[in-house]
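Tokens for chain A. Residues wanted.
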């Protein structure tokens, strides 16, 4: 079948439903897909989803598209392909109800043959419902991924009905196996041939497809000296499958990768015979200032940035990604853990997927695997994240095995995992409470007196935070009994790779206890990344480390914030209004590197330089804390107000060396030893230039510096590309930077920019600020650390996009992007 783009020319109406005899009277707005209708809605402190969803609201949206069907489609088969609709979607074509789809993250294909009208206008209506609270993070809403049609002959190859594997791979030879199901929707038998071509090699066999039936076929093609796929060398090859029958010709083209992945506890993970450790990060599905809208360029840029910063793997947390993201991972080279669910039978929110799981998990699992199994980037399937049921409650052990076995039926070529946390639970039995693998707080005695004693201890906050962090990590033991192993054992045995969330302190122990168990650190803390990474490297049975998170995301707001007193903890794990994002990522909301990104790249051995950061002078000598996902609140700035001149300031530098020398305005202030890749130092703050020099074996091996910025003098605009495609889908990312007269970035947070666009669409305008009361969609944004980000959407015809950015007291900045 051939794909027909179907993303442009829609109308959207936001608002509740009307009585059926009235119809939809909500105002309609022209839109193009992908479209997240939630992102530009006002955020409020009382939003139903709260901090979990970034204080965004929920709503209902109806999408309508009127389209003509060419006469030459008569007699052909037409599929509607919705890559993602959030959520509880309902499709109607020409008044005919075609179906519903509760889950907002899995793709959905519908047969339009019985409802489409040839030679006349057709009306397609898709209703989406985002009823909060339904998510632990920002979900977005609407037709936020691509929508396409597939058109083929009456006897055809459907997009998910072709499966390519490479059962034999060496440097000199490979076998490409193509398994396909051929579909005949006509009432007469179809006869012909099925032919596959890869790298100039062709294989063919006769095909007789029964009337209103299907035929399974399989072909092997031998290739000599093939170029293999890996994250380091992502070689792709075009594969074409052609079905020629007496009913016409149908074809499919795929980009495939030829690779061999082997995983075991003794040797870890090998790709094409070479050992690989997964330097991974967890990512949610949103594209920050664009909301959940999965533009191909947005997904591509995300992966490009992560690859540049040293990542070779991502975990799609905690749902299947867009097809566009997987296409980018194939091209750029990024291993992917593809995941189904964040909840099973036990819900985590009132309106989440647990309401539909029992009836839908097989269909949603099949949709993910069948769509994604031809992507060479996908190395593993995950059946879920942090499910309480994996401890045995609600039939969880049986359910883990059932899901893993079903995935293997759909794709026997890849391993299956499940991510297990300490917060699992056993089934409650008579006279026995449910067991959990961590101690509950002692609530006996006089609580008032206990609280009084706690508050009298000047170190109590630090002690409490240490206790929370220890409990969050845990080790699964209670009074010498390995409760976690007892509860999780059956679920762990059901999968090929056991995902450990925040459990590096079990890696070595479980290597001895379970010598055949393959482990992956499916979530790890940023603040103790050094320990997680070294534990992975020391244990060959641990194939990877996926930090939470690689890229900042909307929602889970404030989970990565730095805490300094009990007041900062008043809202629990998440932050209070107006926190916007989780603030846990190596990259901020705009894709700018945060301090931990520099640290991690050095730790991975991919950066031999040195990077210098300072803490705000108001916090000198004060120790920050957090829940494990935080990083020290430092920045690449030597610009502080005059009131701090002469006062002490804490600085830190990251490098793989012996010691670091700190030089202020040409004067050496001293040296600090490197511990765990970090040198810390305290010195008086003075305007000018602070330099850090890395010394190794008495030789200066790297240096960097920070310079005090003056007053803002101009706005600098830098586009990621000067020419984009005039297809109505492509994007251009433009960074706005405040610079002083000497071109030093001015790290201001209070200067508002205004953007004006002609010839294209202002698709997004934001900053990296994780805690702001600003709304998207206003055409305005305050800079954060002197930076902001603008996204321009291409027109549908050739031309140019003109961007003008202004701020009070500064000259306007202008930029032009060509669209061809």
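Reply:
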């Amino acid at each position: 079948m051939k794909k027909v783009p179907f993303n442009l020319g829609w109308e959207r109406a936001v608002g509740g439903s009307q009585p059926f005899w009235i119809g939809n009277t909500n105002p309609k707005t022209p839109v193009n897909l992908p479209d997240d209708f939630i992102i530009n809605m006002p955020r409020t402190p009382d939003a139903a989803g709260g901090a979990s969803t970034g204080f965004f609201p929920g709503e209902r949206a109806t999408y309508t598209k009127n389209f003509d069907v060419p006469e030459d489609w008569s007699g052909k088969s037409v599929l509607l392909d919705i890559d993602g609709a959030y959520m509880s979607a309902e499709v109607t074509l020409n008044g005919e109800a075609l179906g519903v789809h509760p889950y907002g993250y899995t793709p959905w294909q519908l047969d339009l043959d019985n409802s489409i009208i040839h030679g006349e206008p057709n009306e397609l209506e898709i209703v989406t419902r985002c009823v909060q609270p339904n998510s632990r993070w920002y979900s977005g809403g609407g037709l936020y991924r691509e929508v396409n049609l597939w058109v083929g002959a009456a006897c055809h190859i459907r997009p998910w009905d072709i499966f390519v594997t490479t059962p034999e791979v060496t440097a000199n030879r490979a076998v490409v196996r193509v398994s396909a199901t051929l579909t005949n929707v006509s009432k007469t038998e179809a006869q012909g041939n099925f032919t596959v071509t890869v790298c100039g090699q062709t294989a063919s066999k006769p095909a007789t497809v029964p009337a209103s039936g299907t035929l399974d076929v399989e072909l092997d093609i031998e290739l000599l000296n093939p170029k293999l796929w890996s994250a380091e060398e992502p070689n792709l090859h075009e594969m074409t499958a052609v079905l020629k029958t007496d009913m016409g010709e149908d074809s499919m083209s795929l980009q495939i990768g030829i690779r061999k992945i082997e995983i075991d506890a003794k040797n870890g993970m090998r790709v094409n015979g070479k050992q690989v450790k997964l330097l991974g990060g967890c990512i949610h599905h949103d594209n920050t200032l664009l909301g959940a809208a999965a533009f191909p360029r947005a997904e591509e840029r995300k992966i490009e940035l992560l690859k540049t910063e040293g990542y070779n793997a991502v975990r799609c947390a905690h749902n299947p990604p867009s097809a566009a993201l997987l296409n980018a991972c194939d091209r750029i080279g990024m291993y992917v853990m593809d995941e189904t669910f964040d909840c099973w039978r036990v819900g985590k929110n009132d309106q989440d997927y647990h309401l539909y799981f029992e009836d839908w998990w097989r269909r949603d699992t099949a949709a993910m695997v069948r769509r994604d199994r031809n992507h060479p980037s996908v190395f593993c399937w995950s059946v879920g994240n942090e499910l309480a049921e994996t401890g045995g409650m609600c039939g969880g052990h049986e359910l883990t095995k059932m899901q893993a076995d079903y995935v293997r039926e759909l794709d026997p070529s890849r391993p299956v995992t499940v991510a297990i946390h300490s917060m699992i639970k056993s089934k409650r039995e008579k006279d026995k409470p449910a067991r959990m693998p961590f101690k509950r707080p002692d609530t006996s005695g006089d609580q008032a007196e206990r609280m009084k004693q706690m508050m009298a201890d000047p170190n109590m906050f630090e002690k409490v935070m240490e206790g929370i962090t220890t409990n969050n990590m845990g080790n699964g033991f209670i009074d010498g009994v390995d409760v976690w192993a007892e509860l999780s054992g059956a679920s762990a045995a059901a999968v090929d790779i056991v995902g450990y969330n925040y459990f590096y302190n079990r890696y070595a122990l479980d290597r001895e206890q379970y010598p055949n168990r393959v482990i992956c650190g499916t979530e790890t803390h940023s603040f103790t990344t050094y320990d997680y990474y070294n534990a992975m490297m020391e244990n060959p049975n641990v194939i990877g480390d996926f930090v939470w998170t690689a890229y900042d995301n909307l929602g889970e707001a404030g989970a990565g914030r730095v805490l300094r007193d009990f007041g900062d903890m008043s809202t629990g794990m998440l932050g209070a209004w107006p926190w916007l994002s989780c603030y846990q990522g190596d990259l901020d909301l705009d894709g700018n590197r945060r301090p931990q990104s520099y640290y991690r790249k050095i730790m991975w051995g991919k950066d031999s330089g040195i990077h210098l950061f300072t803490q705000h002078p108001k916090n000198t000598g004060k120790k920050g804390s957090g829940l494990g996902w935080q990083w020290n609140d430092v920045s690449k700035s030597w610009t502080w107000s005059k009131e701090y001149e002469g006062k002490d300031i804490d600085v830190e530098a990251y490098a793989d060396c012996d010691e670091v020398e700190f030089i202020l305005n040409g004067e050496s202030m001293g040296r600090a030893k490197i511990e765990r890749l970090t040198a810390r130092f305290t010195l008086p703050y003075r305007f000018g230039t602070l330099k850090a020099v890395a010394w190794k074996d008495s030789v200066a091996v790297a240096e960097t510096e920070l310079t005090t910025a003056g007053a803002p003098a101009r706005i600098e605009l830098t586009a990621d590309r000067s020419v984009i495609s005039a297809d109505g889908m492509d994007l251009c990312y433009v960074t706005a930077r405040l610079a002083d007269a000497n071109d030093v970035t001015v790290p201001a947070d209070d200067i508002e920019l205004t953007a004006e666009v002609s010839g294209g669409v202002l698709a997004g305008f934001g900053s990296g600020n994780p805690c702001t009361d600003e709304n998207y969609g206003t055409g305005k944004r305050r800079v954060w650390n002197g930076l902001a980000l603008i996204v321009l959407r291409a027109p549908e015809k050739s031309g140019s996009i003109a961007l003008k950015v202004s701020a009070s007291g500064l000259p306007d900045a202008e930029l032009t992007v060509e669209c061809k």
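The mean pLDDT is 95. The chain is about 15% helix and 35% strand.
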